[in-house]
Amino acid sequence: MTFLSGGFLLLVGGLLIIYYALPKRLRYLALLGGSVAFYALCGPKFLPFLAVTVLSVYGTARLLGRNLAAQKAYTALHKKNLPKEALTAYKQRQNRKRTALFLLGLLLNLGLLGALKYTSFLLEAFHAPWRVDWVLPLGISFYTFQSIGYLIDVKRGKYPPETNLLKYALFASFFPQMIQGPISRYDMLSKTLYEGADFDWDRLGRGLVRMLWGYGKKLILADRLAPALSLLFRAQAAEYRGSWVLLGMVLYALRLYADFTGGIDIALGVGELFGVTMPENFDRPYLSRNIEEYWTRWHMTMGSWFRDYVFYPLNVSKAFLRWTKGLRGRFGNGFLSRLPLYAATLLTWLATGVWHGAGWNFALWGLTNGVVIILSLTLKPLYDRFHGRFPGLKEKKGYRCFEILRTFLLMSLIRLWDCYAGPAGVWGAFSSLFTTWNYGQVAAQLSALGLSGAAWAILLVGAALLLFVSLKKGEGSFRRFLDSPWKLWLTAAGLLLLCLLLGAYGPGYTASDFIYGRF
Amino acid sequence: MKANRWIAPVFALVLAAVLIWGLGLLVRPKYASGITLEGSMVQNWYDHAGEGHQILFVGDCEVYESFSPVTLFEEFGATSYIRGSAQQLMWQSYYLLAECLKKETPRAVVLSVCSLRYGEPQSEAYNRMTLDGMRLSREKFEAVRASMTEGESELSYYVPLLRYHDRLFELTGEDARYLFKGPELTFNGYLMRTEAVPFTRLPAAPPLREAEFGEKPVAYLDRIVALCREKGIALILVKSPCLYPAWYDEWDQWLTEYAQKNGVEYLNAIPHMEEMGIDLSTDTYDGGIHLNVFGVEKYTRWFGTWLSERVELKDERNDLVTASRYGALATRYERQKTEGGRGA
Asked: Facing residues of B235 across strands?
């Protein structure tokens, strides 16, 4: 079952009726039932994997919480009658216990994810004589990371563990976010997930508009582009070189954006129908002026997850701090003293790449991002000196457009890892940008991609509309526009018609899964 | 104000439903020209449903390109209608017949047995040509369920916009002209062809894989037999004089035994072609696969005689209303026969 299936819409519709028919305090149970039903309909054989994650993380978090509470009680009781050293020793003992417990929970879940996701790739990479053909449970990367984030937060004492198993199970398995995120944090999601929303036509309308906006992006733009891109990047990749690669980069950027943000819009819209607020995952990323900014605006929940749970802990770990101190002592504050920071950056990006999938391309995609970020950090003094010479340039509209275009092209280039098979394929495509001069041919042969004139027109208008909405979104004018119930519901009706009329679906189209659903 | 919050959503819902319906009407194929005129035939029956036909023909091209209701009326005074469409499968014939019998009770039902060869749904395009024209009913619902090929969307049979939205950029004047009502291209279900392409040679018949027909078409044949028996209608199973695709002796034998066992008539018209006077150098429009209007008239005359020996037919030529209706039909029929072309 995907967001695009009739079964999903029926599930959401049926669940809405059940949800609002139940008393408020029981409404979260409807969401849990819906989530289990959704997962079972996607593949009942995957339910045990989800159950292992839910039970192990819930159990570990409860034990961690209990241990922390016991420590607090013990410390409060014996604060006056025990020497400071004894209390410190007690705390260290408890801390070690919690660390062991935490590592057990962490390794179990990362091990499960790693075994299912990477065994096949590793066996092949190391030329092992046997192979495995394991199907990855739907959304395992997302729900595992969301659960691990929760476990880390409980371990850090950020919030107490959830005591109700059913409520925790709902947090880990809430169905709209199972396919491609967003990766939610417990303290944020639980505010609206359990409280049971009151029925509200306006909220229902807003949820519906958000969903339909997502469906529109997916069906009208992303799925219409999918066959053409498959031709460019897979079926006839060797023939489409030079300017075709450039065109492919731009079209893939559009497709990925429409596909991924579309899926997230649907997920957030479904959440809103039930009064559940999930975190935003995008903030007009293609308007970013540099790669660092881009990664704070694209797949924001994943970026912040890796920042909070991988990069920061690594960077401030004892080993890294010792390493930094040692380098500073020997080389001062220069480039070499920043090696630990760069290593942490590269490791984080390697992990980000590998999280996306098992394959060299994913790892190299992550490392390329890391290297570009390190380069831009290293060259920052140079930029600063340049802008010192030309003050005011940064604020000029033309220069801002240049920065946006530069970042867009750079990110599109890095995404070649996502488009072509194997490093050789990526290198071949990349080098052809500079060696195959066929820039005059593309316009004349656009129809070779199998898109009609009408399809190109839809894509152009759709892309322009996305840009317009992105520019206007910052002003909040859409939110104000949708405050009127008539405008809200007529927008929903209009979007529904647009999806049905202009969407690429039905016979002749192969329904494309959401790209991030693979991860 | 809060209490009226439901008005905007309900209005938007109704508006969306009306527009989806209207746009569906606009984009659905009208089958008014080109090579798929057959797609318009199923819906035409609704305009004739109250006429009370004596003979109802049901089936694939072996009825709608083999029998002429105009000839039947002129020669025997019997009123008739052909509820046929391209590659109409046995279960589709059953549901179309069941729908017809809710409105009329003919004296005889003539069923083409050619489609018994198909054990499973064959093609989405042919399904559409048969089922899109059916009005919403229990019969349509069940026919859709029985006919869908793998990967088809059931909902799209009831919401045409889901299936035909891609035609938005291919719309022509015909789509506006036939927005609410499709063209009437047949003569009581007979799709006329006037060209003559002589028979030369047909591909050799492949070896027969199964001497018996599939479980599914036979089950629906049983249901047709039961339905006709229940309504007291004579059922005639017919294999028209079409030479391709091959009709095997084993199938002929099976149907002979089936007809005897169930007390219905079975006619294999192929051996009677000489008796009918069919000349394959002039009476076929596609080299022997289907008959043209001249072959159809010969076959219809012969069949009318054969049928009147088995079923009591009423001569309605003296009925003023019926005669006037068939007179108008015959005028159109003769005009097309003279002018040539396909459809009306």
From this structure: B109
